[in-house]
Amino acid sequence: MITLGILQVYYARNRVTFLQLSEERKKIEEEVHNLINQSILEGNIGRALDSKLEPIKQDILEIKNTLAKIDDRLRNLEAKGK
């Protein structure tokens, strides 16, 4: 009987520990799931922003090229005027 009582106490303690570990595992799984969703969302937002910014980047590049051409023409005119 004493052995059975010891085994029951041992089982009860292990059961509590197992339940605590199960809860911790659930919390960790939920946190990992949230982190994965967050990274996917951030990645999607990043791609969405990149696609929206791409035309603006192209416009800026065209403006820079136009300004460089104007600068070259002005230098050529200055060189001819000297």
From TrEMBL:
Organism domain of life: Archaea
Keywords per UniProt: Coiled coil
Organism listed in the record: Candidatus Marsarchaeota G1 archaeon BE_D
Protein's name in the database: Uncharacterized protein
Coiled coil: 18-80
Record's keyword annotation contains Coiled coil: yes
